[in-house]
């Protein structure tokens, strides 16, 4: 294409790659380039590490994988000899024995330039410092006469610190005209506001327009929501792409006296509870699809957790790929049977009832001599859960369908779940959803569903399931509140313990009962061994169990609940830590 000094068309490919599927990701890139060419693009941009899929974790250390990614990039580069749009595409890249998180500019049949990520995140779900070498801050690349700065994800996120390389400042000082930022930024509630504030800061300090291109799709626990956007240099919104969906959009930039400017499409973006629900749907859909399961099954108890998971599963996969199984015992109330049947009918899923009395009674008979003289306790309750888990896994083995496990974050926090029982399963869409939000999302789904959801509209979760007090139904007249505080109180305490890491004294000072706080903290600590064995599940909070919160199982520390002691600075010598001054004993 000819150079146009005052016009520049950039196609944003907000796509859903699959980690390790180099061939499939390259095919997506080719299809996007064909569309970009039709739309007259000068440059086509893909998200971070697109050819590999993100995050590749330790797969990226495998030489065969590195070679496959490079070969795919080289083939795509050869194809740009056709005169179509140039391509900016992310890939792992080995140079001089070092592995980099890179972006390659492909144009004119060759690899015209490569830029490396300088700032490697090492917090939360990220641990790139153990995988990649740090790249240098480099100047812009030139595409059809336009100087494009390419900071990669964290290169715009980190604020000034000892380790921070100010890539944006370097780009601005070396003549960049537009900033194009490939990202792999996973979803978390209210994350869009954080991204926008970071982008505004970089535009303000550089005076340059900025394009923020994010990946979309599920990868194990992580969900990438897309929601890519562009800002003009005056901080006005140049474009906003939708969330939780693939999207290819070409932005037409024009250069005036004050620089480049664009007025592109602006889509609405799901946030809050709607965003969380859409993330759960996409996470389950991609986990099932990318791992090749024909469908899913789950135990449908007549309770709210399994009801919400069933709705999510149908929205993700369609009713024909979801199977519900009611597994009643003598403690199962008729209302639970009725509600479960109504749920299955509303969702249109295959549904069957498999009583477990023979299995449970058989276990108890086998154990009768071993347990002779011992009182009945939680052991017999857990036998019920484990009988159910065994039956669900048997159906899974026979049919190939994956078992969806249905424990919420409140239960997983305090260990209110049975290992090898109701914790059985391959994936949990509500693992990071507290119980109070389970109620909200269930109510929400009865009046709304996200775009692309495959389930029916309207009321799909019977109102009685939402309003009825939750119960595990493992003994007569049981409710969750026999063992736990009310969920609004429990979740408020857990949010402070898990998300904020607040000391117990601070939580008590906020108005919570000391004994309740101490008990919840104890349950949280001793349940770590269960959480380590739990199925993966969608991350929606800032601190999920697994990737974000990594506690040791063997751990004797307990917060005493007393106010934290102040440090005694009088014990520090004048040569503080890190001083080069020699120690004098």
UniProtKB/TrEMBL annotation:
GO (cellular component) term, any one: cytoplasm
PROSITE patterns: CN_HYDROLASE, NITRIL_CHT_1
Keyword Nucleotide-binding attributed: yes
Catalytic reaction annotation: deamido-NAD(+) + L-glutamine + ATP + H2O = L-glutamate + AMP + diphosphate + NAD(+) + H(+)
GO biological process, one term: NAD+ biosynthetic process
Bias-annotated ranges (Basic and acidic residues): 549-561
Binding site for deamido-NAD(+): 382, 411, 530
Pfam families listed in its UniProt record: CN_hydrolase, NAD_synthase
Residues noted as binding L-glutamine in the record, renumbered to the chain: 123, 185, 191
Region (Disordered) residue spans: 549-585
Signal peptide start-end: none
Keyword set, alphabetical order: ATP-binding, Ligase, NAD, Nucleotide-binding
Domain spans labelled CN hydrolase: 8-255
One example GO MF annotation: ATP binding
Positions contributing to ATP binding: 299-306, 406
Superkingdom per UniProt: Bacteria
Protein task: Catalyzes the ATP-dependent amidation of deamido-NAD to form NAD. Uses L-glutamine as a nitrogen source.
Matching HAMAP family: NadE_glutamine_dep
Name listed for the protein in its UniProt record: Glutamine-dependent NAD(+) synthetase
The organism of origin for this protein: Bradyrhizobium erythrophlei
Protein's gene: nadE
